[in-house]
Amino acid sequence: MNNHGMDVAIIEAKSGVENGDGGPFGAVVIHNGIIVGKGHNEVVLHNDPTAHAEIVAIRRACAYLGRFDLSDCELYTTCEPCPMCFAAVQWAGIKKVYYGCNRDDAAQIGFDDKLIYDILNGNNTTDGPEMINCCRDESFKIFEMWYNKNDKVQY
Amino acid sequence: MNNHGMDVAIIEAKSGVENGDGGPFGAVVIHNGIIVGKGHNEVVLHNDPTAHAEIVAIRRACAYLGRFDLSDCELYTTCEPCPMCFAAVQWAGIKKVYYGCNRDDAAQIGFDDKLIYDILNGNNTTDGPEMINCCRDESFKIFEMWYNKNDKVQY
What we know:
2 copies of one chain form a homodimer.
Chain A: H1 3-19, E1 26-31, E2 34-40, H2 53-65, E3 73-79, H3 83-92, E4 96-101, H4 103-108, H5 114-121, E5 130-133, H6 136-147
Parallel strand pairs in A: 3-4
Antiparallel strand pairs in A: 1-2, 1-3
């Protein structure tokens, strides 16, 4: 564990609150003991609902390292990642996550991920967005086009 | 349903494949019958593992409309959103999603979300990232700081 990682994540979270940038969350990506990406929640600052601290830190770390794979990095975040950020951690290939508060702490201050977990788990089929399937054949043609492409980059 | 929405999502997906920008996915956000955000997977183009088509389209729609709430918008996507994108749809407040291919189609061409679903569901506790809790008290202090702030923007 890199104590510096969590210290900086907390400083990020604090500065985000002070500036009114969004929710009280900060995150840091560490590679070989060095911070390669850091950020805090910027949902309000940038009118971007995807700008959670972890997403911001992951995007910056990837930009800094020049690759979309962070499997040799660790994430430090002041709160257990929400399902969006957890999936982003997985897509980035990160193998170790240090987190401060948990999902129940977050729910206490108004950031409740329970509905998202419940819908993804199939435990709530009524309160999520209406999901309507259409145009599968046309969409699948693009899948085949990609699959048959010789120079595609797999990720 | 807005046929134009899915047509443009498919055109986006196709152009992404042709340019080698990333996976074969496109998405469009419609507001009052008009496209306010569109995009395709740009993971490879920008070295950004979070640049899935839906995330790109949502971010652009929010930038165009100047707000982080898309509860009066619809999403058209050529594939059922992965857990990251589904959670982003929820955070954006989108109430209706039209999708082409489904998660099984995506798995067929190598984009398998099953592990992410399984970890989020608690059905796989061994193959995900190691999750280590630490510094909860220091992190929670920032939660309280935000909670007690009078001019905070709730979202």
